[in-house]
Amino acid sequence: AEANIGVVGLAVMGSNLARNLASREGNTVAVFNRSRSKTDELVAAHPEAEFVPAFSYEEFAASLTVPRTAIIMVKAGKPTDAVIESLMAVFESGDIIIDGGNALFTDTIRRENAVSDAGFNFVGMGVSGGEEGALLGPSLMPGGPDAAWVTLGPILKGIAAVAEGEPCVTHVGHDGAGHFVKMVHNGIEYADMQLIAEAYDLIRRGTGKSPAEIADIFAEWNRGELESYLIEITAEVLRQVDATTGKPLVDVIVDEAGAKGTGAWTVQTALDLGVPVSGIAEATFARSLSSHREQRDVSGSLPGPSPEAFTVADADAFIEQVRLALYASKIVAYSQGFDEIRAGAAQYGWNIDLGAVSKIWRGGCIIRAQFLNRIADAYDADAELPVLLTAPYFVEALGRAQDAWREVVRISAASGIPAPAFSSSLAYYDGLRADRLPAALIQGQRDFFGAHTYRRTDKPGTFHTLWSADRTEIEAEDTH
Ligand code: NDP
Question: Which stretches are annotated as coiled coil (predicted)?
Fold first, then answer.
Protein backbone atom coordinates (compact mmCIF):
# COMPACT_ATOMS: atom_id res chain seq x y z
CA ALA A 1 0.00 0.00 0.00
CA GLU A 2 1.50 3.30 -1.05
CA ALA A 3 -1.28 5.59 -2.30
CA ASN A 4 -2.94 8.01 0.17
CA ILE A 5 -5.88 8.77 -2.11
CA GLY A 6 -7.65 6.97 -4.93
CA VAL A 7 -9.93 7.88 -7.81
CA VAL A 8 -12.49 5.51 -9.35
CA GLY A 9 -13.83 6.55 -12.76
CA LEU A 10 -11.33 8.05 -15.16
CA ALA A 11 -13.50 9.84 -17.72
CA VAL A 12 -12.81 13.54 -18.14
CA MET A 13 -13.69 14.62 -14.58
CA GLY A 14 -12.03 11.73 -12.76
CA SER A 15 -8.80 11.79 -14.78
CA ASN A 16 -8.45 15.56 -14.34
CA LEU A 17 -9.11 15.31 -10.61
CA ALA A 18 -6.56 12.49 -10.37
CA ARG A 19 -3.97 14.63 -12.19
CA ASN A 20 -4.73 17.56 -9.91
CA LEU A 21 -4.28 15.33 -6.84
CA ALA A 22 -1.04 13.85 -8.20
CA SER A 23 0.40 17.29 -8.87
CA ARG A 24 0.32 18.15 -5.14
CA GLU A 25 3.22 17.44 -2.84
CA GLY A 26 2.66 14.40 -0.67
CA ASN A 27 -0.01 12.69 -2.75
CA THR A 28 0.29 9.31 -4.42
CA VAL A 29 -2.88 8.55 -6.34
CA ALA A 30 -4.36 5.12 -6.96
CA VAL A 31 -6.43 5.13 -10.16
CA PHE A 32 -9.04 2.64 -11.33
CA ASN A 33 -11.61 2.56 -14.11
CA ARG A 34 -14.14 -0.15 -14.99
CA SER A 35 -12.72 -0.50 -18.50
CA ARG A 36 -8.96 -0.81 -18.44
CA SER A 37 -8.25 1.36 -21.49
CA LYS A 38 -8.93 4.66 -19.67
CA THR A 39 -6.50 3.71 -16.88
CA ASP A 40 -3.78 2.75 -19.36
CA GLU A 41 -4.27 5.95 -21.35
CA LEU A 42 -4.13 8.19 -18.27
CA VAL A 43 -0.96 6.59 -16.91
CA ALA A 44 0.75 6.56 -20.32
CA ALA A 45 -0.13 10.19 -21.06
CA HIS A 46 1.18 11.47 -17.70
CA PRO A 47 4.46 9.80 -16.78
CA GLU A 48 5.21 12.80 -14.55
CA ALA A 49 2.30 11.95 -12.23
CA GLU A 50 2.61 9.64 -9.22
CA PHE A 51 -0.13 7.21 -10.21
CA VAL A 52 -0.61 3.68 -8.93
CA PRO A 53 -2.79 2.04 -11.58
CA ALA A 54 -5.15 -0.70 -10.42
CA PHE A 55 -7.03 -3.12 -12.64
CA SER A 56 -9.43 -4.63 -10.13
CA TYR A 57 -11.17 -3.38 -7.01
CA GLU A 58 -8.94 -5.75 -4.97
CA GLU A 59 -5.77 -4.22 -6.43
CA PHE A 60 -7.20 -0.76 -5.87
CA ALA A 61 -7.90 -1.48 -2.19
CA ALA A 62 -4.48 -3.08 -1.71
CA SER A 63 -2.72 -0.02 -3.13
CA LEU A 64 -4.28 2.40 -0.61
CA THR A 65 -2.97 3.22 2.87
CA VAL A 66 -5.44 3.03 5.77
CA PRO A 67 -7.86 4.68 6.23
CA ARG A 68 -8.44 4.07 2.53
CA THR A 69 -9.80 7.19 0.89
CA ALA A 70 -11.38 6.96 -2.56
CA ILE A 71 -13.19 9.53 -4.68
CA ILE A 72 -15.80 8.13 -7.08
CA MET A 73 -16.21 10.12 -10.32
CA VAL A 74 -18.57 8.02 -12.39
CA LYS A 75 -21.90 8.63 -14.08
CA ALA A 76 -24.41 9.70 -11.42
CA GLY A 77 -27.22 7.29 -10.47
CA LYS A 78 -27.00 3.49 -10.69
CA PRO A 79 -23.29 3.44 -11.69
CA THR A 80 -22.47 5.26 -8.43
CA ASP A 81 -24.37 2.65 -6.41
CA ALA A 82 -22.58 -0.14 -8.28
CA VAL A 83 -19.15 1.34 -7.50
CA ILE A 84 -20.03 1.92 -3.84
CA GLU A 85 -21.06 -1.76 -3.55
CA SER A 86 -17.80 -2.89 -5.13
CA LEU A 87 -15.70 -0.67 -2.85
CA MET A 88 -17.51 -1.86 0.28
CA ALA A 89 -16.67 -5.42 -0.70
CA VAL A 90 -12.91 -4.72 -0.60
CA PHE A 91 -12.62 -1.84 1.92
CA GLU A 92 -12.50 -2.12 5.73
CA SER A 93 -14.36 -0.43 8.53
CA GLY A 94 -13.33 3.24 8.90
CA ASP A 95 -12.34 3.67 5.24
CA ILE A 96 -13.73 6.69 3.40
CA ILE A 97 -15.82 6.55 0.23
CA ILE A 98 -16.44 9.89 -1.46
CA ASP A 99 -18.96 10.45 -4.24
CA GLY A 100 -17.84 13.44 -6.33
CA GLY A 101 -20.51 12.95 -8.99
CA ASN A 102 -23.58 15.12 -9.45
CA ALA A 103 -25.83 13.14 -7.10
CA LEU A 104 -29.23 14.28 -5.92
CA PHE A 105 -28.84 15.10 -2.20
CA THR A 106 -31.61 12.68 -1.19
CA ASP A 107 -29.65 9.88 -2.87
CA THR A 108 -26.62 10.99 -0.88
CA ILE A 109 -28.58 10.85 2.39
CA ARG A 110 -29.74 7.33 1.49
CA ARG A 111 -26.21 6.26 0.53
CA GLU A 112 -24.61 7.69 3.66
CA ASN A 113 -27.11 5.79 5.81
CA ALA A 114 -26.42 2.51 4.03
CA VAL A 115 -22.64 2.96 3.88
CA SER A 116 -22.24 4.13 7.47
CA ASP A 117 -24.46 1.29 8.72
CA ALA A 118 -21.88 -1.01 7.15
CA GLY A 119 -19.10 0.73 9.13
CA PHE A 120 -17.57 2.92 6.43
CA ASN A 121 -17.48 6.70 6.14
CA PHE A 122 -19.40 8.17 3.23
CA VAL A 123 -18.96 11.67 1.88
CA GLY A 124 -21.20 13.18 -0.81
CA MET A 125 -19.15 15.96 -2.37
CA GLY A 126 -20.28 18.63 -4.82
CA VAL A 127 -17.58 19.40 -7.38
CA SER A 128 -17.92 22.58 -9.40
CA GLY A 129 -15.92 24.02 -12.23
CA GLY A 130 -16.19 21.43 -14.97
CA GLU A 131 -13.15 19.73 -16.46
CA GLU A 132 -10.89 22.73 -16.15
CA GLY A 133 -11.82 23.19 -12.51
CA ALA A 134 -11.16 19.52 -11.78
CA LEU A 135 -7.67 19.84 -13.24
CA LEU A 136 -6.60 23.28 -12.02
CA GLY A 137 -8.68 23.81 -8.90
CA PRO A 138 -12.39 23.17 -8.36
CA SER A 139 -14.74 24.55 -5.76
CA LEU A 140 -15.44 21.58 -3.47
CA MET A 141 -18.53 21.09 -1.33
CA PRO A 142 -18.06 17.96 0.80
CA GLY A 143 -20.69 16.70 3.22
CA GLY A 144 -20.30 13.58 5.35
CA PRO A 145 -19.18 12.86 8.92
CA ASP A 146 -16.61 14.91 10.88
CA ALA A 147 -14.34 11.87 11.14
CA ALA A 148 -13.91 11.74 7.36
CA TRP A 149 -13.14 15.47 7.16
CA VAL A 150 -10.10 14.99 9.40
CA THR A 151 -8.43 12.81 6.76
CA LEU A 152 -10.01 14.37 3.72
CA GLY A 153 -9.81 18.06 4.60
CA PRO A 154 -6.06 18.52 4.08
CA ILE A 155 -6.13 16.59 0.77
CA LEU A 156 -9.04 18.66 -0.56
CA LYS A 157 -7.53 21.95 0.59
CA GLY A 158 -4.49 21.03 -1.49
CA ILE A 159 -6.39 20.67 -4.76
CA ALA A 160 -9.19 23.23 -4.46
CA ALA A 161 -9.20 26.59 -6.21
CA VAL A 162 -7.76 29.42 -4.14
CA ALA A 163 -9.63 32.71 -3.72
CA GLU A 164 -7.93 35.57 -1.89
CA GLY A 165 -5.53 33.12 -0.28
CA GLU A 166 -8.22 30.74 0.97
CA PRO A 167 -8.92 27.28 -0.50
CA CYS A 168 -12.42 26.97 -1.97
CA VAL A 169 -13.49 24.05 0.20
CA THR A 170 -15.29 23.76 3.50
CA HIS A 171 -16.97 20.91 5.35
CA VAL A 172 -20.49 22.00 4.44
CA GLY A 173 -22.43 19.75 6.84
CA HIS A 174 -23.42 16.15 7.33
CA ASP A 175 -24.72 13.59 4.78
CA GLY A 176 -26.44 15.35 1.86
CA ALA A 177 -25.41 18.93 2.77
CA GLY A 178 -22.61 19.13 0.21
CA HIS A 179 -24.69 17.91 -2.71
CA PHE A 180 -27.58 20.14 -1.59
CA VAL A 181 -25.36 23.21 -1.67
CA LYS A 182 -23.94 22.15 -5.06
CA MET A 183 -27.51 21.80 -6.36
CA VAL A 184 -28.43 25.33 -5.25
CA HIS A 185 -25.16 26.61 -6.72
CA ASN A 186 -26.29 25.26 -10.08
CA GLY A 187 -29.75 26.80 -9.64
CA ILE A 188 -28.17 30.20 -8.95
CA GLU A 189 -26.02 29.66 -12.03
CA TYR A 190 -29.19 29.20 -14.12
CA ALA A 191 -30.63 32.46 -12.76
CA ASP A 192 -27.41 34.40 -13.30
CA MET A 193 -27.13 33.17 -16.91
CA GLN A 194 -30.76 33.98 -17.68
CA LEU A 195 -30.40 37.51 -16.25
CA ILE A 196 -27.33 38.13 -18.38
CA ALA A 197 -29.17 36.80 -21.44
CA GLU A 198 -32.12 39.13 -20.78
CA ALA A 199 -29.75 42.09 -20.41
CA TYR A 200 -28.12 41.23 -23.76
CA ASP A 201 -31.49 40.85 -25.50
CA LEU A 202 -32.85 44.16 -24.21
CA ILE A 203 -29.70 46.04 -25.18
CA ARG A 204 -29.52 44.44 -28.59
CA ARG A 205 -33.15 45.01 -29.50
CA GLY A 206 -33.37 48.35 -27.73
CA THR A 207 -30.28 50.02 -29.12
CA GLY A 208 -29.53 48.00 -32.25
CA LYS A 209 -25.96 47.45 -31.12
CA SER A 210 -24.09 44.50 -32.61
CA PRO A 211 -22.97 41.50 -30.55
CA ALA A 212 -19.37 42.74 -30.79
CA GLU A 213 -20.39 46.15 -29.45
CA ILE A 214 -22.34 44.48 -26.65
CA ALA A 215 -19.26 42.36 -25.92
CA ASP A 216 -17.45 45.61 -25.16
CA ILE A 217 -20.25 46.64 -22.81
CA PHE A 218 -19.98 43.36 -20.88
CA ALA A 219 -16.20 43.67 -20.76
CA GLU A 220 -16.69 47.14 -19.27
CA TRP A 221 -19.23 45.83 -16.75
CA ASN A 222 -16.70 43.18 -15.77
CA ARG A 223 -14.53 45.94 -14.34
CA GLY A 224 -17.23 47.02 -11.87
CA GLU A 225 -19.53 45.54 -9.26
CA LEU A 226 -20.76 42.88 -11.73
CA GLU A 227 -17.26 41.44 -12.11
CA SER A 228 -17.67 37.69 -12.52
CA TYR A 229 -16.70 34.71 -14.60
CA LEU A 230 -20.12 34.61 -16.30
CA ILE A 231 -19.96 38.28 -17.37
CA GLU A 232 -16.41 37.71 -18.60
CA ILE A 233 -17.30 34.69 -20.78
CA THR A 234 -20.42 36.44 -22.06
CA ALA A 235 -18.17 39.07 -23.63
CA GLU A 236 -16.05 36.29 -25.16
CA VAL A 237 -19.07 34.48 -26.64
CA LEU A 238 -20.59 37.69 -28.04
CA ARG A 239 -17.31 38.66 -29.68
CA GLN A 240 -16.89 35.30 -31.42
CA VAL A 241 -17.36 35.34 -35.21
CA ASP A 242 -18.48 32.18 -36.99
CA ALA A 243 -15.77 30.96 -39.37
CA THR A 244 -18.25 29.47 -41.88
CA THR A 245 -20.68 32.36 -42.29
CA GLY A 246 -18.76 35.36 -41.01
CA LYS A 247 -21.72 36.18 -38.77
CA PRO A 248 -21.60 36.62 -35.00
CA LEU A 249 -21.57 33.08 -33.59
CA VAL A 250 -24.48 33.93 -31.27
CA ASP A 251 -26.64 34.47 -34.40
CA VAL A 252 -25.76 31.04 -35.78
CA ILE A 253 -26.40 29.03 -32.60
CA VAL A 254 -29.89 27.47 -32.37
CA ASP A 255 -31.83 29.38 -29.69
CA GLU A 256 -32.95 26.37 -27.65
CA ALA A 257 -31.27 26.05 -24.24
CA GLY A 258 -30.39 22.62 -22.89
CA ALA A 259 -30.28 21.55 -19.25
CA LYS A 260 -28.95 18.57 -17.35
CA GLY A 261 -31.55 18.80 -14.62
CA THR A 262 -29.88 20.42 -11.62
CA GLY A 263 -31.87 23.64 -12.09
CA ALA A 264 -35.07 21.61 -12.04
CA TRP A 265 -33.88 19.81 -8.87
CA THR A 266 -33.30 23.17 -7.19
CA VAL A 267 -36.82 24.32 -8.05
CA GLN A 268 -38.48 21.01 -7.13
CA THR A 269 -36.71 21.01 -3.78
CA ALA A 270 -37.64 24.65 -3.18
CA LEU A 271 -41.30 23.82 -3.85
CA ASP A 272 -41.11 21.03 -1.28
CA LEU A 273 -39.49 23.36 1.24
CA GLY A 274 -41.88 26.22 0.45
CA VAL A 275 -39.09 28.62 -0.51
CA PRO A 276 -39.85 31.13 -3.29
CA VAL A 277 -36.85 30.81 -5.61
CA SER A 278 -38.71 32.60 -8.40
CA GLY A 279 -35.56 33.77 -10.21
CA ILE A 280 -34.20 30.24 -10.48
CA ALA A 281 -37.63 28.92 -11.46
CA GLU A 282 -38.07 31.54 -14.20
CA ALA A 283 -34.61 30.76 -15.54
CA THR A 284 -35.38 27.05 -15.64
CA PHE A 285 -38.74 27.62 -17.31
CA ALA A 286 -37.21 30.07 -19.81
CA ARG A 287 -34.93 27.23 -20.94
CA SER A 288 -37.94 24.93 -21.25
CA LEU A 289 -39.88 27.49 -23.28
CA SER A 290 -36.93 28.00 -25.62
CA SER A 291 -36.66 24.31 -26.36
CA HIS A 292 -40.35 23.82 -27.25
CA ARG A 293 -39.77 24.52 -30.91
CA GLU A 294 -43.11 23.07 -32.03
CA GLN A 295 -45.00 25.48 -29.76
CA ARG A 296 -42.88 28.46 -30.76
CA ASP A 297 -43.42 27.64 -34.44
CA VAL A 298 -47.19 28.00 -34.14
CA SER A 299 -47.05 31.10 -31.91
CA GLY A 300 -45.25 33.62 -34.11
CA SER A 301 -48.52 35.21 -35.23
CA LEU A 302 -49.71 36.02 -31.69
CA PRO A 303 -50.32 39.78 -31.52
CA GLY A 304 -47.71 41.96 -29.87
CA PRO A 305 -47.01 45.69 -29.57
CA SER A 306 -46.06 47.57 -32.71
CA PRO A 307 -42.29 47.70 -33.29
CA GLU A 308 -42.31 51.45 -32.63
CA ALA A 309 -43.33 50.68 -29.05
CA PHE A 310 -39.65 50.16 -28.32
CA THR A 311 -37.54 53.19 -29.05
CA VAL A 312 -34.73 54.09 -26.74
CA ALA A 313 -33.92 57.77 -26.90
CA ASP A 314 -30.61 57.63 -25.06
CA ALA A 315 -28.77 54.35 -25.64
CA ASP A 316 -26.08 54.95 -23.01
CA ALA A 317 -28.63 55.81 -20.35
CA PHE A 318 -30.64 52.69 -21.20
CA ILE A 319 -27.54 50.48 -21.02
CA GLU A 320 -26.80 51.82 -17.55
CA GLN A 321 -30.41 51.13 -16.52
CA VAL A 322 -30.06 47.55 -17.75
CA ARG A 323 -26.81 47.17 -15.79
CA LEU A 324 -28.53 48.30 -12.61
CA ALA A 325 -31.53 46.05 -13.27
CA LEU A 326 -29.16 43.13 -13.77
CA TYR A 327 -27.36 43.86 -10.51
CA ALA A 328 -30.58 44.22 -8.52
CA SER A 329 -32.07 41.02 -9.99
CA LYS A 330 -28.84 39.19 -9.28
CA ILE A 331 -28.99 40.22 -5.62
CA VAL A 332 -32.53 38.78 -5.50
CA ALA A 333 -31.49 35.50 -7.18
CA TYR A 334 -28.63 34.93 -4.73
CA SER A 335 -30.77 35.94 -1.78
CA GLN A 336 -33.37 33.37 -2.84
CA GLY A 337 -30.71 30.68 -3.32
CA PHE A 338 -29.26 31.26 0.15
CA ASP A 339 -32.80 31.19 1.52
CA GLU A 340 -33.17 27.71 0.04
CA ILE A 341 -29.92 26.58 1.68
CA ARG A 342 -31.10 27.99 5.01
CA ALA A 343 -34.43 26.19 4.70
CA GLY A 344 -32.75 22.94 3.60
CA ALA A 345 -30.37 23.11 6.56
CA ALA A 346 -33.29 23.59 8.94
CA GLN A 347 -35.25 20.75 7.36
CA TYR A 348 -32.41 18.22 7.27
CA GLY A 349 -30.57 19.27 10.42
CA TRP A 350 -27.40 20.57 8.80
CA ASN A 351 -25.35 23.24 10.50
CA ILE A 352 -24.35 25.19 7.36
CA ASP A 353 -22.20 28.32 7.62
CA LEU A 354 -23.70 30.44 4.82
CA GLY A 355 -20.77 32.87 4.82
CA ALA A 356 -18.35 29.97 4.34
CA VAL A 357 -20.45 28.69 1.43
CA SER A 358 -20.32 32.08 -0.29
CA LYS A 359 -16.54 32.12 0.17
CA ILE A 360 -15.91 28.71 -1.41
CA TRP A 361 -17.84 29.85 -4.50
CA ARG A 362 -15.38 32.71 -5.06
CA GLY A 363 -13.02 30.49 -7.02
CA GLY A 364 -13.14 27.43 -9.26
CA CYS A 365 -16.85 27.46 -9.95
CA ILE A 366 -19.07 28.95 -12.65
CA ILE A 367 -20.67 31.61 -10.44
CA ARG A 368 -17.37 32.87 -9.06
CA ALA A 369 -17.61 36.62 -8.58
CA GLN A 370 -16.48 39.59 -6.55
CA PHE A 371 -20.06 39.87 -5.38
CA LEU A 372 -19.67 36.76 -3.19
CA ASN A 373 -17.41 38.75 -0.88
CA ARG A 374 -20.35 41.04 -0.17
CA ILE A 375 -22.46 38.02 0.75
CA ALA A 376 -19.71 36.74 3.04
CA ASP A 377 -19.55 40.20 4.69
CA ALA A 378 -23.31 40.13 5.22
CA TYR A 379 -23.19 36.76 6.99
CA ASP A 380 -20.05 37.73 8.92
CA ALA A 381 -21.99 40.67 10.32
CA ASP A 382 -25.08 38.57 11.06
CA ALA A 383 -24.90 34.80 10.66
CA GLU A 384 -28.65 34.51 11.32
CA LEU A 385 -29.66 37.12 8.72
CA PRO A 386 -33.18 36.00 7.72
CA VAL A 387 -33.16 37.64 4.27
CA LEU A 388 -29.81 38.21 2.60
CA LEU A 389 -30.97 41.20 0.59
CA THR A 390 -31.79 43.12 3.77
CA ALA A 391 -28.07 43.38 4.63
CA PRO A 392 -27.05 47.07 4.60
CA TYR A 393 -24.79 46.78 1.54
CA PHE A 394 -27.58 45.24 -0.53
CA VAL A 395 -30.20 47.68 0.73
CA GLU A 396 -27.95 50.49 -0.50
CA ALA A 397 -27.38 48.79 -3.86
CA LEU A 398 -31.08 48.07 -4.36
CA GLY A 399 -31.94 51.66 -3.45
CA ARG A 400 -29.51 52.85 -6.09
CA ALA A 401 -30.84 50.41 -8.70
CA GLN A 402 -34.56 50.29 -8.15
CA ASP A 403 -35.72 53.16 -10.38
CA ALA A 404 -33.72 51.78 -13.29
CA TRP A 405 -34.91 48.25 -12.53
CA ARG A 406 -38.57 49.34 -12.67
CA GLU A 407 -37.96 51.27 -15.87
CA VAL A 408 -36.30 48.28 -17.57
CA VAL A 409 -39.18 45.98 -16.57
CA ARG A 410 -41.67 48.59 -17.80
CA ILE A 411 -39.87 48.90 -21.13
CA SER A 412 -39.65 45.14 -21.55
CA ALA A 413 -43.39 44.77 -20.97
CA ALA A 414 -44.31 47.70 -23.23
CA SER A 415 -42.08 46.51 -26.04
CA GLY A 416 -42.99 42.83 -25.82
CA ILE A 417 -39.47 41.65 -25.07
CA PRO A 418 -39.61 38.88 -22.47
CA ALA A 419 -37.59 39.53 -19.33
CA PRO A 420 -39.02 36.87 -17.01
CA ALA A 421 -36.16 36.82 -14.52
CA PHE A 422 -35.89 40.63 -14.33
CA SER A 423 -39.63 41.05 -13.81
CA SER A 424 -40.18 38.17 -11.41
CA SER A 425 -37.29 39.24 -9.20
CA LEU A 426 -38.76 42.74 -9.04
CA ALA A 427 -42.16 41.27 -8.11
CA TYR A 428 -40.50 39.19 -5.37
CA TYR A 429 -38.74 42.29 -4.07
CA ASP A 430 -41.97 44.28 -3.95
CA GLY A 431 -43.76 41.32 -2.37
CA LEU A 432 -41.21 41.19 0.44
CA ARG A 433 -41.47 44.95 0.97
CA ALA A 434 -45.25 45.07 1.02
CA ASP A 435 -46.93 46.10 4.24
CA ARG A 436 -50.10 44.16 3.30
CA LEU A 437 -50.32 41.37 0.74
CA PRO A 438 -53.47 40.17 -1.05
CA ALA A 439 -52.84 36.85 0.71
CA ALA A 440 -55.60 38.11 3.02
CA LEU A 441 -58.05 37.76 0.13
CA ILE A 442 -56.72 34.29 -0.64
CA GLN A 443 -57.40 33.26 2.95
CA GLY A 444 -60.93 34.61 2.55
CA GLN A 445 -61.42 32.57 -0.62
CA ARG A 446 -60.02 29.45 1.03
CA ASP A 447 -62.34 29.92 3.95
CA PHE A 448 -65.30 30.42 1.56
CA PHE A 449 -64.89 27.25 -0.48
CA GLY A 450 -63.14 24.96 1.96
CA ALA A 451 -63.71 26.30 5.48
CA HIS A 452 -59.92 26.53 5.77
CA THR A 453 -60.26 29.30 8.43
CA TYR A 454 -58.24 32.48 8.86
CA ARG A 455 -56.55 34.48 11.60
CA ARG A 456 -57.48 38.09 12.37
CA THR A 457 -55.18 41.09 12.63
CA ASP A 458 -56.92 42.40 15.75
CA LYS A 459 -57.16 39.38 18.07
CA PRO A 460 -55.70 35.91 18.56
CA GLY A 461 -57.47 32.73 17.52
CA THR A 462 -58.71 31.06 14.37
CA PHE A 463 -61.98 31.99 12.67
CA HIS A 464 -64.45 30.85 10.06
CA THR A 465 -67.29 32.78 8.44
CA LEU A 466 -70.50 30.80 7.89
CA TRP A 467 -70.53 31.69 4.18
CA SER A 468 -73.46 29.50 3.16
CA ALA A 469 -75.57 30.39 6.21
CA ASP A 470 -75.99 33.83 7.75
CA ARG A 471 -72.32 34.82 7.26
CA THR A 472 -71.65 35.40 10.92
CA GLU A 473 -68.16 34.60 12.16
CA ILE A 474 -67.40 31.76 14.55
CA GLU A 475 -64.25 30.73 16.33
CA ALA A 476 -62.89 27.63 14.70
CA GLU A 477 -60.24 25.03 15.24
CA ASP A 478 -57.12 25.75 13.24
CA THR A 479 -57.27 23.48 10.19
CA HIS A 480 -55.14 25.55 7.80
P1 NDP B 1 -19.42 10.46 -17.12
O2 NDP B 1 -20.52 11.01 -16.35
O3 NDP B 1 -19.49 10.48 -18.62
O4 NDP B 1 -19.18 8.93 -16.65
C5 NDP B 1 -18.24 8.09 -17.27
C6 NDP B 1 -17.49 7.27 -16.25
O7 NDP B 1 -18.40 6.48 -15.48
C8 NDP B 1 -16.52 6.32 -16.90
O9 NDP B 1 -15.35 6.26 -16.12
C10 NDP B 1 -17.29 5.00 -16.84
O11 NDP B 1 -16.47 3.86 -16.89
C12 NDP B 1 -17.94 5.13 -15.50
N13 NDP B 1 -19.05 4.21 -15.32
C14 NDP B 1 -20.26 4.25 -15.91
N15 NDP B 1 -21.03 3.24 -15.48
C16 NDP B 1 -20.28 2.53 -14.58
C17 NDP B 1 -20.53 1.38 -13.78
N18 NDP B 1 -21.72 0.75 -13.78
N19 NDP B 1 -19.53 0.93 -12.98
C20 NDP B 1 -18.33 1.57 -12.95
N21 NDP B 1 -18.05 2.66 -13.67
C22 NDP B 1 -19.02 3.14 -14.48
O23 NDP B 1 -18.03 11.12 -16.68
P24 NDP B 1 -17.65 12.63 -16.34
O25 NDP B 1 -16.19 12.60 -16.10
O26 NDP B 1 -18.19 13.60 -17.31
O27 NDP B 1 -18.41 12.92 -14.95
C28 NDP B 1 -18.19 12.13 -13.80
C29 NDP B 1 -19.11 12.59 -12.69
O30 NDP B 1 -18.80 13.92 -12.35
C31 NDP B 1 -20.59 12.59 -13.07
O32 NDP B 1 -21.36 12.19 -11.96
C33 NDP B 1 -20.86 14.02 -13.40
O34 NDP B 1 -22.22 14.37 -13.20
C35 NDP B 1 -19.97 14.72 -12.40
N36 NDP B 1 -19.58 16.08 -12.73
C37 NDP B 1 -19.33 16.44 -14.00
C38 NDP B 1 -18.97 17.74 -14.31
C39 NDP B 1 -18.66 18.10 -15.71
O40 NDP B 1 -18.46 19.28 -15.97
N41 NDP B 1 -18.59 17.14 -16.63
C42 NDP B 1 -18.86 18.76 -13.27
C43 NDP B 1 -19.07 18.27 -11.96
C44 NDP B 1 -19.44 16.99 -11.72
P45 NDP B 1 -16.13 3.17 -18.31
O46 NDP B 1 -14.97 3.91 -18.86
O47 NDP B 1 -15.81 1.76 -17.94
O48 NDP B 1 -17.36 3.28 -19.16
Answer: none
